[in-house]
Design brief:
- The structure is a homodimer.
- By secondary structure, chain A is α/β, with parallel strands linked by helices.
- Chain A folds into three domains: about 1-230, Clc chloride channel (Orthogonal Bundle); about 255-440, Clc chloride channel; about 450-595, CBS-domain (Roll).
- Helix content of chain A is about 60%, strand content about 5%.
- Chain A has a four-stranded mixed beta sheet. Chain A has a three-stranded mixed beta sheet with strand order 8-9-10.
- At the A-B interface, helix 6, helix 7, strand 1, helix 8 and helix 17 of A face helix 6, helix 7, strand 1, helix 8 and helix 17 of B.
- Strand 8 of chain A pairs antiparallel with strand 7 of chain B.
- Chains A, B: It is found in: Basolateral cell membrane; Membrane.
- Chains A, B: GO terms for molecular function: metal ion binding; voltage-gated chloride channel activity.
- Chains A, B: It comes from Cricetulus griseus (Chinese hamster).
């Protein structure tokens, strides 16, 4: 509940601040006069300044704050620990950086889903630590991961104020399986967030005072020294950000090329106009509306129309330009989400098809004896859901489209479009998030299809790492030290005797090194002190709670690692430690299976 | 795809047949004349006959066809094998029985969700077997379970023609976790089903010929002998069903008590009227509509009105009566679903509250400076979702409410009602399906909350079954036979020697008994033949792919059993077989933890 309410407050405050900045920009652009140079400058300086600041500021605090954060979170949810990634001190950097990115509006054309999920997970990790401290409980890794999964759901849900699709989308993107418990917690927190968000909106429209109380109450505590802020100038990254922002802003300059791509509309207005019911092509066939000096709030879609280019020209031009502009924008190191731009591009694709159909069948298509005119807005809805679903490999984008529009009447066609898009994209490429994980070389467990692997008789003995550094209780200390220094693994299997090799436990490297360093007196040469003494002297060992056999199949092992978010397991045969399996071995085994080495 | 299309065909055919039967009943009731006795008989004979036939017929084919089937499927999805439960020969019994049950309409007040899920799973199991046979593949248990999960989703989805909530509902009810893969397959199959269903409706309304072709094409092949049908008379159960049907039909007789509970409406009409926007209490405050001789299709809600009882009286009476009538109906052994009645009762509860509020605030409640009249239909929607969500412990009933109404504008209030209902009901009682599982004494794994158990230091050694019947390779055959006959476990742990007790594999009871019986010559007394020889002679052993340690925690073990749908695991300590853990031990350990034994 705390998480939901906090995220709603943050989302609301950010929307409020961004709205003010955008309004100021619009005012400046309107009031600056008619000179083209001044207008051009007022159009471009804003995003250039905001983006350099966003990029430089957030990068100077922490390099983790760039990008969407979803790929890293996906990695963390599979059990990998990324140090400091959820540290609360990144929070300020991400909030400020994201606000600046979003305040550039449709010029830079980036969204906020991914960063919001990251923010939500940060807060949840922080709340978890606070709770553990106050309750005096030790932290439980499994519980932490559960909490992160729920927090991810809250993040998506607060962005769209759409609890259903938020929860489902985050589940689909984040994991290959999920427990119904998490789903519950996600729904509860997301509902709290959505409710709070709505409540704030009501208060705000009713009485300005409550908003201002809230404004002064809500402070983002940025725990870093002020001089650090200006340190970023040395990083050089802002200059790249500024250059990219200049290019993007110049292209979208409304009296220039921007005229052909509806660049005076905000991203929300893009969506609203694209989902419009009426066919623009039919409406402009006989009359051509003039290009207003200001976007007309009643007829925002005029922005999409150009007398010579027509609707089709602007839509196609929008698609082509925004496509490479989005690629350029993703290269800027700053907090930004990539879901919304993709959703809008999908809507434009759908709209293009819908308008074309409405020209081809101006009377509508005959079905069941009745003639219904074609609604290009429906095609735009399906296009948005299908394209974003294909890029992220999810189906819940269909539900998101319904929650955004408040109507679920198009359920069947939209769902079918999303399914078809998924079938094609899943066979051709990894999802956007998986692709980023691979590109960033984050650890990940490849997803294997049951069909491909279930029938292969590959078992653990074929791919396990059998060159283990084993510690035996009767090992002399010299050998122990040699073994420890010869490798850098984090855990050592502990066996009863060098002869029997019966696995009895696990020794953590850190504990062992500590124990060896604190007791230097007892291992004078010639005294024949062995590992047993060090263990008795206070080095803790962990029991082996789960062990594989050489006969366990690859499929079973993969399921186990995937479901239980494991990192390493030891393999025993008749009680003897014979090997270990970690992600590295699993990944290698799977890739060998998919692309078998050429026979010599 | 085949599954979705088949289920749509079945659902459509059943709807068609049921519609005809119901229409015939209505016609009979209308045409039979004004005599009360004749009318009463025409009202009651139909359901009595249908129900006795439904109960007797389905029970004579198989006792498995009674009830909803969801609890049994839930048990199967957790890995337990219920023999013959998915046999295709039950299919005919279930289809015919369910059609008869549903044809009784609102008199008996039962639904079809559960049975449809059972039907869908039966077909999917059958298709799976056909596929395995034609492809020459061996059957894979994990894959089978995945397919069953997807089929369950299709079953729910085809009933409501609501793919989203269908898939989610089945997931929530069926399992404590689920893989995103299954969710996909469920969506795909459910969409195929919903599309086919829609297509059939279009064909049917356009040209009667296609329906009739379809009618003749679709045949339910009932694989049993005709005389068996009449065997049910001896079972005695139909007489109970007939008696219960007589009571239920008598109570709902419209000129009698039925007048006060809108019994002339079908279940679908109950729902449609309860979701009506206008406040009936306000509309009938000054004028009282007459009770029409026939339900007026334009104003079906008149059925809910009685001049002296008022709307509140009929709604409250409906709730009280339907509540115990539903309990009575559930005791009849025949195929029937219990979700729809609960959904309608919830809608009536919500409607009652909504009507009361509309009387208390006839002008509407002031919010944000505007006055909006209260819409009791919205309360009915929330009530239906909340009550059915509370009974089944699911949240997706909220989504179902939206898919049924085609609007998602009430998202937040409905979701909040469902969450609140869930919080209360989950703390007070098991879900309807879990309760049935317990009452039927089906095997199940209790659900443990992380909080309660995560912090308890209970590990496997505290609760494992340590009185194992262990077979050693060097055991003389006499001892082996003694061991095998002394117990009836299905699997024996096989150890290397009697002395070392190192676990090397698992021997199935059936294989061992077979091997012992086929080689009686070699174990003449005095020859000192041992188990090793039997194994070498062709008795297969299975490798131990996963083993527990005495130090594994209860929480970890539970997660493992739950996620991997395991039945039994052996416990080894330093390679020696020391015990085994199955559901029985786990259940006992969990119940001890929740209700600790009183200290002496």
């Amino acid at each position: 509940m705390a998480l939901g309410v906090l995220m709603a407050l943050i989302s609301y405050a950010m929307n409020f601040a961004i709205g003010r900045v955008v309004r100021a920009h619009k005012w400046l652009y309107r009031e600056v006069g008619d000179g083209h140079l001044l207008r051009y400058l007022s159009w471009t300086v804003y995003p250039v300044a905001l983006l350099s600041f966003s990029s430089g500021f957030s990068q100077s605090i922490t390099p983790f704050s760039g990008g969407s954060g979803l790929p890293e979170l996906k990695t963390m949810l599979s059990g990998v620990v990324l140090e400091d990634y959820l540290d609360i001190k990144n929070f300020g950097a991400k909030v400020v950086g994201l606000s600046c990115t979003l305040a550039t509006g449709s010029t830079i054309f980036l969204g906020k889903v991914g960063p919001f999920v990251h923010l939500s997970v940060m807060i949840s990790a922080y709340l978890g630590r606070v709770r553990a401290k106050t309750m005096g409980e030790s932290q439980n890794k499994a519980k932490e991961i559960e909490m992160l999964a729920a927090a991810a759901a809250v993040g998506v849900a607060t962005v769209f104020a759409a609890p259903f699709s938020g929860v489902l989308f985050s589940i689909e993107v984040m994991s290959s399986h999920f427990s119904v418990w998490n789903y519950w917690r996600g729904f509860f927190a997301a509902t709290c967030g959505a409710f709070m968000f709505r409540l704030l909106a009501v208060f705000n429209s009713e009485q300005e005072t409550i908003t201002s109380i809230y404004k002064t109450r809500f402070r983002v505590d940025v725990p870093f020294d002020l001089p650090e802020i200006f340190f970023f100038v040395a990083l050089g990254k802002p200059s790249y950000a500024a250059l990219a922002a200049l290019i993007l802003a110049s292209i979208t300059y409304p009296p220039g090329v921007g005229r052909f791509m509806a660049s005076r509309l905000s991203m929300a207005e893009h969506l609203r106009t694209l989902f419009d019911n009426n066919s623009w092509a039919l409406m402009t066939r006989n009359s051509s509306p003039p290009w207003p000096a200001e976007p007309d709030p009643q007829n925002l879609w005029f922005e999409w129309y150009h007398p010579r280019f027509t609707i089709f020209g602007t839509l196609a031009f929008f698609l082509v330009m925004k496509f490479w502009m989005l690629i350029l924008a993703t290269t800027i190191p700053m907090p930004a989400g990539y879901f919304m731009p993709i959703f809008i591009i999908g809507a434009a694709i759908g709209r293009l098809l819908g308008e074309a159909l409405s020209i081809a069948f101006p009377e509508g298509i005959v079905a069941g004896g009745e003639v219904n005119p074609i609604m290009p807005g429906g095609y735009a809805l399906a296009g948005a859901a299908a394209f974003s679903g294909a890029v992220t490999h999810t189906i819940s984008t269909a539900l998101l489209a319904f929650e955004l529009t408040g109507q679920i009447v198009h359920a069947l066609p939209v769902l079918m479009a999303v399914l078809a898009a998924n079938v094609i994209s899943q066979n051709c490429q990894p999802s956007f998030y998986d692709g980023t994980i691979m590109a960033k070389k984050l650890p990940y467990l490849p997803w294997i299809r049951g069909r491909k692997i279930g029938s292969h008789p590959v078992s653990v003995e074929h791919f396990m790492n059998s060159t283990l550094t084993i510690l035996a209780k009767d090992m002399p200390l010299e050998e122990v030290i040699k073994a420890v220094t010869s490798t850098d693994v984090a855990q050592f299997p502990l066996v009863e005797t060098r002869e029997s090799q019966i696995l009895v436990g696990i020794v953590e490297r850190t504990h062992l090194v500590q124990a060896l360093q604190t007791e230097p007196a007892s291992w004078a040469p010639g005294q024949q002190c062995c590992l047993q003494d060090v263990l008795a002297g206070g080095c803790p060992t962990q029991p082996v709670t789960l062990q594989l056999s050489p006969e366990t199949s690859l499929y079973q092992t993969h399921t186990l690692f995937d479901l239980l978010t494991l990192q390493t397991l030891f393999v025993t045969s008749r009680g003897r430690a014979v090997g270990s399996v970690s992600w590295v071995e699993l990944k290698k085994a799977i890739s060998t299976l998919i692309n078998p080495p050429a026979p010599k």
